[in-house]
Amino acid sequence: MIYLDLFIGFLKVGLFAFGGAYGAIPLIRDVVLSYGWLTDEALANMIAISESTPGPIMVNLATFVGASQAGVLGSVLATLAVVLPSFVIILILTAVFKNIIKNKFVQASLRGVKPAVIGIVLATGAFMLVKTLFPENRAANLIDLVLTIILAAIYFLPRKFSKKKLSPIMFIVVSAVLGAAVYTVFPG
């Protein structure tokens, strides 16, 4: 039954996603691919859209996948499943936070998990970059490669020459405008 699959699939994501939305992308990818709900390319597109829309990536993806697979009820169930574990954990931790956070074992565990989450995020980013720039069934897309280099330069160069960072909102707007302009002229 699709409703149960959506709930269990996104409950797994909500339960085991540690380190925020970017740390959850590998879990989301595993779930949506294993159930056949999205392809790698569709997932990459949804991540881009989820990144540029308000709200957490996990919630946006769960809502989209739920709606695309089972309508409004599917989107409600998938969204509820992905946020339920965090909600319950936060309620429990709030009740005992003062004592737990001072525990040296908890501190050590959190310090130990941090490098793993960073590695997962970097590996997923590298995987998505390679998959986007060098797709399996066709030649490397020069336009994608050039756009990636231009956007990386726009993001990193201001940091090199001034202390002022580019606003994430402005970067998303620049990326959207540049992508719309380039892919309107060079579709496909």
Plain-language structure description:
The chain is mainly alpha-helical and 188 residues long. Helix content is 82%, strand content 0%. The protein has seven helices and no strands. The longest helix has 44 residues, at 57-100. The protein is globular and about 55 Å long. The model has no long low-confidence stretch (mean pLDDT 86).
Q: Supply Rg.
A: 19 Å
Mean pLDDT: 86
- Structural class per helix/strand content? mainly alpha
Query: Any idea what the shape is?
Result: globular
Distance separating the two termini: 36 Å
Order of helices and strands: HHHHHHH
**Count of DSSP E strands?**
0
Contiguous runs where pLDDT drops below 50 for at least 5 residues: none
Give the % helix. Answer: over 70%
Individual helix count: 7
What fraction of residues sit in β-strands? under 5%
Largest sheet: none
Brief description of this entry?
This protein is mainly α and 188 residues long. It is 82% helix and 0% strand.
In terms of topology, how is this protein built?
Elements: H1 2-16, H2 21-35, H3 40-52, H4 57-100, H5 104-133, H6 142-161, H7 168-185
